[in-house]
Amino acid sequence: MTRTVLVTVLVLLLFGFVLFIYTAHPEGHESDVSAYYIHNFIEDTGARNAVAAIYLNYRMYDTVFEALILLVSIIAMLHFFKVGGHG
Fold this sequence. Notes:
mainly alpha; 4 helices
């Protein structure tokens, strides 16, 4: 295995692990934060749509930085595939 392939596999495994941990929660379990969002989004943000209120008001910076991380990851993967083609 070349070094580029090994790094690519490790990065993909890391993202998969983070995604698994981020989304793993008991079925039907409502956390305190989600209950707060559901019951107070209209008063806090004035938005009529709960999804828009969460993404654009509560978690705007989180969403922007997640998009930035995704963009950097795509650029890195394109670079790895371009550089490591002779393995």
